[in-house]
Each structure stands twice: as C-alpha cells, then as structure tokens.
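Forwarding the complex inputs:
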Amino acid sequence: MAAAGPSLFSENEEETAPYLKTLNEEQRKAVLTTEGPVLMLAGAGTGKTRALTTRLAHLLNTGRAQPWQILAVTFTNKAAREMKDRIAALVGDHVEGMKWLGTFHSIGAQILRRHAELAGLKSSFTILDADDQTRLAKQVIEAANIDEKRWTGRGLAMVIDGWKNRGLTPDKVPANEAYHFADGKGIDLYKAYQARLTTLNAVDFGDLLVHNLTIFQNNADVLEEYQRRFRYMLVDEYQDTNVAQYLWLRLLAQKHKNICCVGDDDQSIYGWRGAEVENILRFEKDFPGAEVIRLERNYRSTPSILGAASGLIEANKERLGKTLWTDAEDGEKVKVRGVWDGEEEARLICDDIESEQSKGRALSDMAVLVRASFQMRAFEERFNTLGLAYRVVGGPRFYEREESRDALSYLRLIRSSDDDLAFDRIVNKPKRGLGDKALQVLHKIARAQGVPLMAAARIALESDDLHAAARRSLVNFVDTVDRWARDAKDMTPADLAELVLEESGYIEMWKNSKSPQVPGKLDNLKELIQAVSEFDTLEGYLDHVALVSELSEDTGDGQIWLMTLHAAKGLEFPVVFLPGWEEEIFPSKRSLDEKGNAALEEERRLAYVGVTRAEESCRISFAANRQIYGRWQTAIPSRFVDELPEEHVDVVSEPGLYGNSASDLASHSSFDGAKLREDAYYDNPGWRRARASGARPASSPPLLEGRAKTVSVSAPGASKFSKGQRVFHQKFGYGKIQSIEGQKLTVEFEHSGPKKVIDTFVEAA
DNA sequence: TGTTCTCTGTTTTTT
DNA sequence: ACAGAGAACA
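Prediction (whole assembly, three chains):
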C-alpha cells in the first residue's frame, strides 16, 4: 500500500477498501468522516482502537495527508506504541514517517526543543521528573524562609502542578487563589520556582505544555507553522485531557479543523490529576459543526456484565449518555459476595481462581482489580502461600527507584555539569565526607555568584572556605567527573554507565550495606545498564528516560494479574475479580471528603471501568471487617453494590456478617423486610450444611425482594439506639454513643477511643 | 558521621 | 502497621 501522493482509490473505491470491510456501521462512519471536527464516543469494548487506527491508515492510504502531517496524541507511551504497531500493520513503513505520533508530553517536548529560545531556554533543556520537582520546590520554600513543616515541597509542587494543568503561568493565576498556599505567597513561590527552572535550563512535565502555549500565543508565525502542518489531528482518551492540553489542541486545530477526539466520558477517572470531563462534554460547543459518532456495540462482555455496568453508571448525572449493547449470548450473572474479612475475601477469590484453573482457564485470563494498592498485600500473601504465579502492574516504577535515580544523576551530571539537582543528589553518595557543611558553602557561593554547583565547587577549591579533608575529597570528585565527561566522548553509554557506577564506589556502597534490599538494587542497576545499551548516545538515553518511567514490559503469560482499577483501564480479561467494594474504601472516603459529589461520580466511573473489564465473569466482593493501617475497621457494603441492577446480579452473603445470627434477629426489631428475608434464607439447614462443609450452597441464593429495582445488602433505616447510650462491641468493648447517622454510630470506646461502627455490631450494655 | 528516636502521612499517578 | 523523614544523640 502506498501513502504518498494522490489517492489510490476513486471516490467509490474508497468506501470499499478492504480494511473497511471488517468494521461495523458506526466504526466505518468514524473512519470515513475525515473532514471537520469529529467526536468519537467510544464505550468500553466497542472497538475504539480499531476504528482509530483504521482512520489513520485511511487518511494515509487515500493520500489525504502525508505521515508527517498528522498529529496523533495519546496519554501513555504504551498507547502510542500500540497505535503505531497497529497502523504499521495496515500501512507498513509509512508509519515511520509519523513523527507527530506520541504522548502529549513527548510532542510538547519536541516542539519546545525547536523553539526553546522563545521560552527563555536552551534547546538542550533537561526534563525534571516528579522527584526533582519536589526537591526544587522544597529549595524554593527554604530560600523564602517559610515554615517547611507546614508548607512542604510536595505541597507546593502539587499546587504549581494544578496551575500548570490549567495552563496558568504565574501572571495568570487568579489573585483569589494566591491564598491557597503559604498565606498568599503561593504565586511568588511559583515565580521563584520558574526562575530556578530557567537558571537550571530545565522544565517540569507541566511546562512541556505550558511553554508550548506561551510560545503559540506570543508568536503567531510559529503557531501558524504548526497549524498548517497538522492537516489532521487525532486525540485518544479525550476525556482525560486537562485544560492546558485542551487549549493546546484548540490552538492547533484552528486552521484545518480536522480534529477527531476519541473518548468515553464514562471512563474519565483522572479528575484528581487535572483531567476535565467537561472537555468532552463541551466538545460540540467548542468545535461548531462537530459530528458526534457513538460506538455502542460492545464486542467484549456478556449482556449481564454490560447490564450491570450500565445500571451502575446511570446513577451519574454528568454524562453524555450511551447505551452499550451486544449480540453475545447470556453468560453468568455478575456475582456479588459478602465475606467476613479481607483475609477471607482473598482466600475465597483464590479458591475461585484455582477452580477456574482446574477447568483449564489460564491464569493470565484472570485479574484482581483493587481500588488502592494497599489492598494488594492480602492477595500477594495468599498467592504466595498457594504458589500461584502473579504479576503486579504498576507499583514502584523502575526509574523512580532510589538506585535508578542515583545512577541517572551520575549520568546527568556527566552530560551537563549545570545539573544542580543531580549534583546535589550524588555528590555525597556514597559518602565522601562532603556533608551538610561543605554543601552549604557550595550553595552559598552558587547563589551569590549565580553559577551552578559544579562551578561553585571549582570556585570553593580556589578559596579557603573548606576544611582540608572536604577539600581533598571535592578535588577528587570534580576531577573524576571531568574525566568521566572526557571518557564519555569515546565510549558507548552503557560502558560509561558501568564504569561510573564502579569507579564512583556506588556499587560498592550497596554491596557493603546490610539492607535486605541490596540484591534487588544491584539487579536493578544491571537492568539499567542493559537499558542504556540500547542507546547510541548518552543524550538519547537521558532524553528517553525523562519521558518514560518504565522499562518495556514483559508479557504476563501464566500469571494472574493484580493491579489497581486505574491501571486496568484499556485492558480486558475473561475473569475479573473486584474486591473491596465497601463504603470508605470504594468509593474512597478521601476523595469524597475532598471533592464531594464530583468525586463520587468519578469513583462510580471507576467502578464502571472495573466491571467493563470483564469478558465472561465478573465477581465483586465486600468484607464486613478489614484491617486498615493496622486497625480493624468495620465496613458496610459499597453503595455501588446497591446500585447494580438486580436482574444482572447474583448475591451471596455469609450469615452473621451484619449481626444477623438467630439471636440477633430476635432482638433487632427495626430490620426491614429485605434484611429479614436475607437472614431467613441463610438461617436454613441447607446453608449451614454448605458452610460447614466449606462448599457453597447448591443453588445461588434468591435475589432479595425488598427493593424493586436494585440489590440491597445493607439495611437502611433508623437506629434503635440513642445518643449517649452505653453499648458493648465484641471487638472494642464498652463505650458511649456520641452521634448517630442512620446505621452508623460514632462511639467513644473506653479502651480504644472514638470509632465509627455499624449499629448491628453493638448491643445495649 | 552513624544510630536511634519520634513524628507523620499514608488513593488513584498515563507524563 | 509501617515506611520515610527529620531530629536528637552518641
């Protein structure tokens, strides 16, 4: 297939191109509507990537655009890689010409390198990561003499990030937001932070976009160059764009207006990072004449899974609304299981996994998706005792680990002696007798003379400011770094990395440490050298790692997947386990406290993402008790459980979970009908026998009839207790009721202090 | 400079 | 419960 030059097809043939044949009606429309703004609303599992890559291939094949005239942006490197691979499958080598296919940040960096001087930078600028950013922010706070206890570097970095996400340079931050940080000093600190970045010839992630915006706004000619170049634009995961990215896209799209945004408002789960669902909700207003194409036919899941997910997401108010449908045959219903505690939950899920495995299901076809990473531990422990192979996605990133960052700092300092953050990090690591005292001297000189620390070190060596020991050590350090910089010219980067880690004593430092993590760290350093060896130049490698935080992933064959719901977006598995559906965990209490209803809707979208990952089987569970931060907490089932439509769900709840033993039944007069029926069901001989033998009841329990439309496993209603009453709790002992909120009581326990408990857990004392 | 202690903040984290 | 940071102390 050729891409260059005029179309290979006549008007008529275009519509019959072979790659269009496998698409459904909507997908075809999404491919063939090439001109003008298009919003492709693609629900989970509707073949979005296929539509999107075919669209790009079509633009190339019909000669509508040359590969370098297409801007295609994604959020992750992984998504960019996948898109590239799939386009290559359709158009072959022409994909290599698509130099504007990448993440927002990598494309922003490319553009910024070409016009760095317009942002007051040299084109060799370094890109700081989150850790550098925090340390820089901390330095800024220190320099401003602000109480570092109350106002942390991390806090400032977050505030600045928030502004950058909204495309705000210091002069544009609304005055009424000045008081968000350090009693009104926020904006000044932001200015100081930017000034430091300029001196360091560095940018943070947010700057990659914000500098682009400033350049475009102040240099019409530059903007126009790019507007002309990008005849077609394509944006993946549009629901996750922040304001800065939105502004960037809108500026670039003004000329040709051929922008196609693909997304799903129901899967917007990064609001806490500055993503604005409003961007997608507003698309038709922003781009008049936009064509909205809905992909609603789902190729992934069974009707029950889709039905459960749809019912759940319907509780959200702020959405464009889609109805997913499928031709697939009815499968099993979504299973909901209530258990006693987190440990049991892990045990039962692992039982299920093993039973699936014995039926011939591959481990890599199953995934456990959790809300927060602390929930992973219970599963890892259980997997380990059973000897089940598993694979955690996410977790500590390779390039964020201490040893990776140290090694990179050595390399950065060799590349550029101006890299103060790198200097700071490794000048005394391993210990070279260059402690706080010596560093203070260097910092003072650097600040006074406006030079980098390395230069300050040379100046200090000319003076009498340092003790003899420190001086000897510093001479040695400076000379060694100089020598490495010379060596770097005629060595491969990998050899250099190896040499540096040896000669610096860095490897030795770890070998001498008795920390149990040492073998892992040494392995990581070897892996890092391995990664370096894939690059021809040091610059190339450092530039790569600045924008990529993970090594390329190995495949998870023969392993169960364990990851957070966020990490699972975009993936699919035949069997999905969703543990921990309890109030305060999911939806997470913290996000609700911070952002209220908006956060609740986002949590609900997260639940929706979780359910829609499943192809055949989706198993939700909740525990009545859970250990969090070392303390036992009682929990009630998540409201999301209640929101699942009854007809698509099977509920299995153990007896005794919520104070429903026979004796409790007699004393709890306030239970409503649904609760009674649930208890009555489990208080039968069949269930008891099933429990005793460790098996599940022969048939699934009947759905509860107390509610017309949704499942109910919690028992709402007025509490039978009153404020001030003395009560007894099995775990916490005696206490006095402080306040009552429906079923939730706040009790001041005599031995363990104030706690929130569910009223069925306590009895009058 | 190294060790031990106390305090604090513990959701998600594509770049 | 627990890790990481910072302070106190040897």
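Residues 221 and 422 of chain A are 37 Å apart (CA to CA).
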